[in-house]
Design a protein that fits this description.
By secondary structure, the chain is α+β, with helices and mostly antiparallel strands. The chain is built from 16 helices and 18 strands. It has one domain: Cytochrome p450 (Orthogonal Bundle), CATH 1.10.630.10. The strands form five sheets. It has an eight-stranded mixed beta sheet. It has a three-stranded antiparallel beta sheet with strand order 4-16-17. Strands 8-18-15 form a three-stranded antiparallel beta sheet. It binds protoporphyrin IX containing FE. Protoporphyrin IX containing FE binds next to helix 11, helix 12 and helix 16.
């Protein structure tokens, strides 16, 4: 079997097309371009074989809903030991995302009650209050950069509440978050320094909560035991870091894509606002489907034959959710946003044992954030002449300049 620039020649004689991670996950693009690249790849083939840079291990890539969902559900063969196709042997372990088997199940049992609907519903008044406070600051201005001024701030503040952190640190947190996750174009040093700062912050916070426990996730986690053992500070730190990456930027980017869509599609906005109670929840699901941006990978744990492709133990598999969510075999009119789509079995929150723990909270934040904005500012538009930029890495929008008429 051989690998060529055009692909990998399979035992059957067929060629599995070749891909380069850098060509798919580009540093800068126009909004939605990443998802469109994945659309084109899905139209081209069901499986790809590729590399990320000269030194990297090869990885496979699925493009269709059925295959992607099945891989997420087959955790024995496709494991979370590594979730980045570019990095088969990472020197870190995010908890619980990069755990497998029994230990992962134990963490989920501990975490799930904190994010269950009943627990999140108790937070609801505070979530609404946080969003109102942000809106109170911006409504009279007539303009904002939605990403920086609203989308990044809102989930950040909710996260700080959940983790018992003072919201006076929210601004600093936002700077670190941007450096770590949206650092394309800046030096790797900046992201690394920010990561070290976040590490240091959480280490101090864990020590503080040990001395003065409160009603927050870290204080609860300090009481947890797994197989009779308290959780080590090292694991608690790895858990805080994962929550930081999983809970803040995801909601912020989902809000940003949704508002981008609504800013340039006034007809969709009118359709929602004509029947808000019914259509907002459907629209939130449709934006989750159409503008999905989480693209995890899995490590292959055994030699497997997939549709004639000989996948080897130790290789990586990339499973971009945006590709699954826009697969025409899974959705009617998959390439169109239908804000009142009734049947919508998307996998924006993943599938299988690692399906998003925070999905109920995320949905609440999206509903409160999008509906709350439109109750205060129903008419707005993109600021003419400014370019909206999408970044790669952790895919998302870099800016979203909006303007509206001041009352
Ligand atoms: C729109 C917002 C969000 C999206 C699209 C999203 C998406 C996802 C996806 C696709 C996964 C699965 C990753 C994989 O299979 O490798 C995941 C896992 C996870 N998410 Fe979310 N997420 C969102 C918001 C949140 C929030 C608000 C929280 C908590 C505050 C959260 C916490 C987690 C955790 C802890 C995991 C790891 C679960 C595990 O490994 O068992 N997420 N998320």
């Amino acid at each position: 079997m051989s690998v060529t620039e055009n692909g990998r020649v399979l035992p059957s004689g067929e060629v599995c097309p070749f891909t380069r991670y850098e060509d798919v996950n580009i540093a800068e693009s126009a909004p939605g371009e990443h998802q469109e690249i994945h659309d084109r790849m899905r139209e081209g083939a069901r499986v790809y074989y590729g590399v990320a840079g000269a030194e990297s291990n090869p990885f496979w890539q699925f493009t269709e809903m059925e295959d992607i969902r099945a891989a997420y559900q087959n955790a024995k063969v496709f494991a979370n030991e590594s979730v980045q196709p570019t990095m088969p042997n990472p020197p870190f372990k995010w908890i619980p995302e990069m755990l497998d088997g029994q230990i992962h199940t134990r963490w989920r049992q501990l975490l799930s009650p904190l994010f269950a609907p009943a627990a999140i519903d108790r937070l609801r008044p505070k979530v609404i209050q946080r969003f109102d406070d942000i809106m109170n600051e911006i409504v009279a201005k007539g303009e904002c950069d939605y990403v920086a001024d609203v989308a990044l701030r809102f989930p950040n503040e909710i996260f700080m509440d959940l983790f018992g952190m003072p919201t006076s640190d929210a601004e600093q947190f936002q700077v670190w978050e941007t450096a770590i996750l949206h650092g394309a174009g800046t030096s790797g040093d900046t992201a690394f320094q920010a990561m070290m700062s976040v590490n240091g912050y959480f280490a101090e916070l864990i020590a503080l909560k040990r001395r003065q426990p409160g009603e927050d996730i870290i204080s609860y986690a300090l009481t947890w035991e797994i197989d009779g053992e308290k959780i080590s500070d090292e694991d608690l730190l790895a858990f805080c870091l994962l929550m930081f990456m999983a809970g803040l930027d995801t909601v912020a980017m989902q809000l940003s894509y949704s508002m981008y869509h609504l800013a340039i599609n006034p007809d969709d906005r009118a359709k929602i606002l004509a029947d808000p109670d019914r259509v907002w929840p459907l629209a939130v699901e449709e934006f989750l489907r159409y503008y999905a941006f989480v693209t995890p990978g899995r490590k292959i744990m055994a030699d497997v034959d997939f549709n004639g492709c000989p996948m080897k133990k130790g290789e990586m598999l990339w499973l971009p959710i945006c590709s699954a969510n826009r697969d025409p075999k899974a959705f009617d009119n998959a390439d169109r946003v239908i804000v009142d789509r009734e049947v919508n079995p998307h996998i924006a929150f993943g599938a299988g044992p690692h399906r998003c723990v925070g999905s109920y909270l995320a949905r609440q934040e999206l509903l409160i954030g999008l509906r709350g904005w439109h109750e205060r500012i129903p008419n707005y538009r993109l600021e003419p002449g400014t370019k909206v930029i999408e970044h790669g890495g952790q895919m998302g929008l870099t800016n979203l300049p909006l303007i509206w008429d001041k009352k």
